[in-house]
């Protein structure tokens, strides 16, 4: 940027750079998420979530909350590692659409 563009970077260039950077980071983290859930987790997070549900349901939290916890647990129990990975990637792409323009405002430099 300093040599070729006289130390300037427009908003559009900064936005495209930030978008590509966040998307690459999203892909790398989604791959790491897949590797973790496929090979390393072995049901640890699901078991921990079930323990937390048991603790909360032993308290007086109401039937609606108990139902919500058990429905969430049932949904998570049916997901496989690729489902986790795709959900993680989709949420990161959504966050990218929000963060890229905001960070581009601070990164761009006018001539």
Characterise the protein shown here.
- It is a single chain.
- With 111 residues, this protein is mainly alpha-helical.
- The chain contains four helices and no strands.
- Helix 1 (11-40) runs antiparallel to helix 4 (81-107) and helix 2 (44-58) runs antiparallel to helix 3.
- The longest helix has 30 residues, at 11-40.
- It starts with 10 loop residues before the first helix and ends with a helix.
- The mean pLDDT is 87.
- Shape descriptor: elongated
Quick one: how many beta strands? Answer: 0
- The overall pLDDT average reads 87
Termini Cα gap? 12 Å
One letter per element, helices H and strands E, the order comes to: HHHH
What is the beta-strand fraction? Answer: under 5%
Largest sheet: none
Number of helices: 4
In helices, the fraction of residues equals: over 70%
SSE class: mainly alpha
Indicate the radius of gyration in whole angstroms: 21 Å
Question: In terms of per-residue confidence, which ranges show pLDDT below 50 for 5 or more consecutive residues?
Answer: none
Which SSEs are present, and which pair or pack?
Blueprint lengths: L10 H30 L3 H15 L4 H16 L2 H27 L4
In short:
Helix content is 79%, strand content 0%. It has four helices and no strands.
Attribute tags:
111 residues, single chain, mainly alpha
